[in-house]
Design a protein that fits this description.
With 447 residues, this protein is an alpha+beta fold. The protein has 2 domains: 15-168 and 228-328, BirA Bifunctional Protein, domain 2 (2-Layer Sandwich); 334-446, Anticodon-binding domain (Rossmann fold), CATH 3.40.50. Helix content is 41%, strand content 20%. A hairpin with a 5-residue loop joins strand 3 and strand 4. Bound molecules: adenosine-5'-triphosphate (ATP) and magnesium ion.
């Protein structure tokens, strides 16, 4: 029989990876909590109309990338390609906005039918925040600061924040007509994709990856010249707040985001280590979306961070600096204790002892092989545990266990002191082991 494979672009996360993901997720949760963001979980499957209305028919996501199908009740359903539309739908459905501004975060898989490559999958994962009902320019800077501080705390470096303003719908309308009439004069130079976008979504042409089109765009009119005075001063206020927070940025007047609902602030955080898929985090203000989905006009801003790309830059940062913060986060889970045991009596005691230590909160790996002590110690060293507990027949007879430092903690090879501890009264031993485990953990969480 042929071995079944996962679908193209759908990726398994194996244990070595999941422990890294968990480290990132748990740090992200801490940050969200500090900023007063509360988690919201919405279904993976929504009515197709939500995304058609929310994201825009003319976008790549809705036009080409959605996983849509008719369910058994003949409703058109779509696996969510992003989180914002679902979060807004849920907030409206449950009247959350009547309770005041909502600072929400979400995480989980998203689905887009794209060409898979490094940093681009068909099922991928995002964590994101949506702040609904917040309007000030300071809140734009604050929501960016949340992403920036989280990435800094992860030890990810070589990141750049690019920011732009897309102005009001009126500003964009004006710009759109100016851009279209200019582009129409150069239509023959545009790539085929951009020619099509000229009719459907001309602003997205600014985002084209085609070299010839990019060259042409050097001389195109800029959105900036179509901005009303209020839009300009709002943008300046956002930049001022970023300056106040010492967050470095580059104003990129060509940055337009792929989804229709953005206005005013739009931003991306990119890494130079990801090749073409450079954007780790993207977001912006979407003051029109809530109304578009049937709510009262409500200002809002948010961002989404791609987990797969974040993991790639995290791993790169770990390789570049093996003793840094990122390196400690990507390290595999290591046990607190490795139990080395040999002989029948010793086995029985090791089994009981291991369970008792686990009940006390320690991560315990017990060697099951009954192989020679030397082999067991090799495995103990490889596990990364700081200490081994050793029980042979002699220890079992005396009702003790021997505590031995392992390679990962020995400063000098000959420095391996051993101590015997009673297994009839485990309290003192547990205290010693917990102490060691806590100091290890605080090293990885406080960096
Ligand atoms: P791109 O231009 O790379 O396609 P996007 O503008 O479509 O990105 P968003 O919709 O803003 O992306 O999603 C936010 C983040 O989610 C991106 O910055 C990226 O990190 C991640 N992301 C988007 N699409 C994918 C994908 N197919 N595979 C992996 N990560 C993705
Ligand atoms: Mg995309």
């Amino acid at each position: 029989m042929t071995q079944l494979q996962s679908l193209r672009g759908m990726v398994d996360l194996l244990p070595e990876q999941t422990c890294r993901w968990q480290a990132v997720e748990s740090l992200a949760r801490q940050h969200f909590q500090r900023w007063g963001c509360r988690e919201i979980r919405t279904p993976l499957l929504e009515v197709t109309e939500l995304f058609a209305r929310g994201i825009g028919e003319a976008t790549d996501v809705v036009g080409k990338e959605m996983y849509s199908f008719q369910d058994r009740g003949d409703r058109s359903c779509t696996l969510r390609p992003e989180g914002t539309a679902s979060v807004v739908r849920a907030a409206l459905q449950h009247g959350l906005l009547a309770q005041g501004a909502q600072r929400l975060w979400y995480g989980g898989p998203m689905f887009r039918y794209e060409r898979p490559q490094a940093g681009r999958q068909r099922q991928f994962h995002q964590i994101g925040v949506e702040w609904l009902g917040v309007t000030s320019a300071a809140s734009d800077a604050e929501v960016i600061a949340l992403a920036w501080d989280l990435l800094a705390d992860l030890g990810v470096d070589r990141l750049a924040l690019e920011i732009n303003t897309l102005g009001t719908p009126d500003d964009r309308q004006l710009y759109r007509s100016r851009l279209v009439s200019w582009l129409e004069q150069h239509e023959n130079v545009l790539d085929a994709d951009s020619q099509q976008r000229l009719r459907t979504n001309p602003l997205r042409i600014l985002d084209s990856k085609n070299a010839q089109t990019r060259e042409l765009l050097q001389d195109a009119p800029m959105l900036e010249q179509s901005l009303a005075a209020d839009s300009r001063s709002r943008h300046q206020a956002v930049l001022q707040a970023l300056d106040d927070l010492s967050i470095p940025y580059v104003v990129n007047p060509r940055l337009v985001r792929g989804l229709d609902y953005y206005g005013h602030t739009a931003f991306e955080i990119t890494s130079d280590q990801l090749g073409a898929q450079a954007t780790v985090c993207g977001g912006g203000r979407y003051n029109g979306l809530i109304q578009q989905l049937g709510g009262a006009p409500t200002p809002a801003i948010g961002w989404a961070l791609g987990m797969e790309r974040l993991l790639l830059v995290l791993e790169a940062a770990a390789t570049a600096n093996p003793s840094g913060r990122a390196a400690s986060l990507v390290q595999a889970d290591v046990p607190d204790v490795y139990v080395v045991n040999r002989g029948e009596q010793a086995h029985r005691q090791a089994l009981i002892l291991s369970r008792q230590l686990r009940s006390a909160g320690l991560a315990v790996q017990r060697d099951e092989s009954d192989s020679a002590f030397g082999k067991q110690f090799k495995r103990a060293d490889r596990s990364g545990a700081p200490v081994a507990l050793v029980i042979g027949e002699e220890e079992a007879d005396r009702g003790v266990v021997r505590l031995k430092a392992l390679k990962s903690t020995l400063s000098e090879p000959g420095d391996d002191q051993q101590e015997d501890w009673s297994i009839n009264d485990l309290g003192p031993l547990i205290a010693v082991l917990q102490n060691g485990a806590n100091s290890e953990r605080s090293e990885t969480t406080q960096g």
